[in-house]
Amino acid sequence: MKEMRGKEHIVKENDKLKRGEAIASELLKAIEESRSSVIVFSENHAHLRWCLNELVKIMECKKDLGHTVFPIFYHVDPSHVRKQEGSFGEAFAGYEENWKDKIPRWRTALTEAANLSGWHLIDG
Known about the structure:
alpha/beta, Rossmann fold, two-stranded antiparallel ribbon, 43% helix, disordered N terminus
């Protein structure tokens, strides 16, 4: 779902999007047209392949278009995201057989995003 407010693009995840479903071209376009993204990393983030694909797109836009990225680590340790440990490591262990071609890009995007200055929220 996308809302437009002036020149801002606000992209909200549609909770009806199912795991493994292709990312809509509209969402990728909205990411490209945005100037910044807020990424909320949670325990299940790496278990959703479409979240990882969106993250890759966001980090590509950061590199190529100067996109600003604000990571929020919600009840996850940033080092687990950076090193793909804990629930992130578990998710990647399940991807080894079927998603070998995408894993390097996902790992790079997670590491780069986790190395950015962000917020680590433990309570709330």
